Amino acid sequence: MYQVATVLLLAFSAATRALDNGLMKTPPMGWLAWERFRCDIDCDNDPQNCISEVLFRDMADRLAEDGWRELGYVYVNIDDCWSSKKRDEQGRLQPDPKRFPGGIAKLARYIHGRGLKLGIYGDMGTYTCAGYPGTTLDTIEMDARTFAEWGVDMLKLDGCYSNSSVQEQGYPLMSKALNATGRPIGYSCSWPCYQGGLPPKVNYTVLGEICNLWRNYEDIQDSWDSILTIVDWFTDHQDIIQPAAGPGHWNDPDMLIIGDYGLSMDQSRSQMALWAIMAAPLFMSNDLRTVSSGARTILQNKVAIAINQDPLGIQGRRLIKEKSEIDVFWRPLSDDASALVFFSRRTDMPFRYQTSLKTLNYTAGTYMVYDVFLQKIQPTLKDTTNFVVSINPTGVVMWYLFPTTVRQEEAEPVRFTKMLKRIKLYGREDYADSLTGL
Ligand code: GLA
Question: Which of 69, 316, 321, 397 is 20 to 30 A distant from 228 in Cα terms?
């Protein structure tokens, strides 16, 4: 009897702690203001780029009209510097009245009207990182209710001006408070960023229960160096963080900076490929009003997105790091498919890398190979056949592979039809229809 009661009690406490919103079964995708627009609040002199409702409406228009939404990029996320420096008379957070004169609820309606979702930013501490009001332990429930009343769909909760005891209590409490609103609100926790130590002293089991995604590491900046530092950190710690990812709970290496100023086209393909194979959330932080067609083509690559969005939700791993020149990543996908990324760190000339699928741990058999960025079927490969890939400096070659027992002409349409059906399951019919032409 006592045992039954204990079991029931345990089950109950787990149920109340767990984030129970059914969201983000595949990594979330969308747009996030921070890396590109920072804390520009100078609307008098820079009205198009300052953090204001204009910017978020503009980005919503672009996502809805330029083919992003159909690919899954549906979140429009506000970051820091949106709020007034003071809470309102009832103690509630409120937006800056000059920059968000219509209020957040009205902005949410605008964004929902375009088939998109709205994300907002808060901080589990006294102030946000840029010095705006934070959420303290006594305002958690009120802030969760405020966000829900406004119609917010996602919350990024940062951890500046805080300490470990506040965070240990606050992050799970916010998870509960979001649940209690009854509105499904995706929950992005910056908690691990603020827990130091090597290896990082983070309880990923708890994180996976209370958050949909979490920032593991430092902020991305608009540079290739920044990407390399993040990729190195993620791969050096992959034994710890890779098992933590899965449907509904993801590691977040931070925003996509493709379309900004810091990356070449090859480096942009590298970020897309690496983020896709790592099952990372895909939040672009760029100016969708002026993004180049080259960057757009990379960000809208349907097979890279389908790999990122694979329903098994297994984060890829680095299999090989050779001579500080080449990394090979592998990710298992549903229906026995898989993805490979050959990533070259050389900067002087294309790297010709010779290997075989057998060397990369593939089981005996024959494989169909599709080159994701060339958008071409490659010759069928036996596991034992040696092949050479030529990888541009700081670039990638990305493959989608699946085993085949039938002839190439038959295998290809069957496999892609399966992939399309899967995408249809996510409710992205337009996306699936346009892929049929592959
Ligand atoms: C921290 C976060 C960033 C961004 C800024 C805003 O640095 O890691 O992603 O939200 O705060 O001030």
Answer: 69
The 10s digit of each residue's pLDDT in 316-347 is 999 999 988 999 999 999 888 999 999 999 99
> Measured from the CB, is residue 194 less than 6 Å from ligand 1?
no
Query: Ligand 1 centre from 122 Cα, in Å?
Result: 10
Name the residue of 31, 34, 35, 126 to mutate for ligand 1: max ligand atoms within 8 A of Cβ.
34
Ligand 1 pocket, 130 CB below 6 A?
yes
Contact 231, 267 (CB under 8 A): no
Indicate the pTM of the whole model: 0.93
Counting DSSP H helices and E strands in the chain, the numbers are: 14, 16
61 given a catalytic annotation: no
Buried b (16+ CB within 10 A) or exposed e, 77-87: bbbbbbbbeeb
DSSP assignment string, 353-387: EEEETTTTTPPSSEEEEEETTTTEEEEEEETT-EE
| Cβ of 34 less than 6 Å from ligand 1 | yes
